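Q&A log
Question type: sequence-to-structure
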Amino acid sequence: MIVMHAELPIAPDSREDALELVEELAVESRAEDGVIDYRVTTDIESPNTVRVIEQYEDGDAVDTHMGSDHFESFQAEIAAHLAGEPELYRYDVDSKTQLM
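Response status: OK
Response body:
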């Protein structure tokens, strides 16, 4: 499994537009083959920070997502709403254990 974690600093004056874009991205991404989960959250301490937590079955699913029309469209549209550089991290996970 591959887990991706993105942090997007959103400009306060275009927050609502940015949230609409990431919500649409999440809905379309969850429908892709190989996507286990795709969630968008805002930080309660920094409401203009959006976090995207993505889970994929494998690298092929990541590649398919990154090359999808809806992701490329999102990339082009979100740029106008950013207040800085996004950060993206990838974690290759060998196992998963539910603790609660």
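Response note: The chain is about 35% helix and 30% strand.
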